[in-house]
Amino acid sequence: MPVKTRLALAALAVLVAAGCSAAPAAAPAPPPHGLTATLTTPTDIDLRWPAGDPAAAGHLLEYANSADGPWTALQYVPRSQTAYRHPDLIPETPFYYRVRDFYGPVSAVVQPGSDDRPGSAGHATPPAAAVPVRTPGDAAAPADVTVVPAEDASVHFTWADRSSDEAGFLVEIRKPGVADFVPVEITDPDTTTCALSLLPDEQGSAFRVRALYYGPLSPVVDRTTGKD
After folding, report:
1. Tens digit of pLDDT at every position of the chain (228 positions)
2. Residue 25 located in a structural domain
3. Which of 29, 60, 61, 200 gives the lowest tally of CB atoms within 10 Å of its CB?
4. What is the three-state SS of the chain?
């Protein structure tokens, strides 16, 4: 499947439900209520929401120009982030927003030229068959992750897909001197490769890959932009 562009422009595949015999993990917490949208300038909208489920890995913001959609992924953000500005919008246009938590097991941390081999860095040997992404532990986490630098300042990822029903894969980055990982790229389900063009301050970063699933959606809020 084609790889999506950088995260802020990514469109999101819908989670596919699949039957399984393995015992699922506990259901995600209720959706984060309290999402607000404030028109801070005629063409800038500020979004705020509560932190939500402490077990979540982060939040996905989506927007549409109609209450019925279609919905587009606006940004994936880490759980600690609870505000976002949607800037430079089309004047006199309605914008609808919703937020949901995202979850999922992650691979071991890798850097360009390193890899995550089965049985290393806390991962067991991949099972003979893929398991549901909500399986407790790291049995569904991506394995065999490799990050290969290219001459054009990009990096190329490959990994083994060990989950049977992921909504996609999220590449997360930790820049040099920064403590936390943040989402940077999204792919379709069943994808096992990805390429990322690095910005100057991303050189020397560490990465990991998350098999995604999502919590419930928040209520929708909307604002209409003013005249430019």
Report:
1. 333 344 543 333 322 233 333 344 455 555 556 899 999 999 999 999 998 789 999 999 999 999 999 999 999 999 999 999 999 999 999 999 999 999 999 999 998 866 544 444 444 455 558 999 999 999 999 999 999 988 888 899 999 999 999 999 999 999 999 989 999 999 999 999 999 999 888 988 999 999 999 999 999 999 999 998
2. no
3. 200
4. CCCCCEHHHCCCCCCCCCCCCCCCCCCCCCCCCCCEEEEEECCEEEEECCCCCCCCCEEEEEEECCCCCCCEEEEEEECCCCEEEECCCCCCCEEEEEEEEEECCECCCECCCCECCCCCCCCCCCCCCCECCCCCCCCCCCEEEEEEECCCCEEEEEEECCECCCCCEEEEEECCCCCCCEEEEEECCCCCEEEEECCHHHCCCEEEEEECEEEEECCCEEEECCCC
Query: Domain check: are 51 and 120 in the same one?
Result: no
Is the domain of 116 the same as that of 138?
yes
Cα separations in angstroms, 86 against 91, 95, 217: 13, 10, 19
The answer to whether the predicted template modeling score (pTM) of the entire model surpasses 0.90 is no
> Is the Cβ–Cβ distance between 95 and 225 less than 8 Å?
yes
Counted domains in the chain: 2
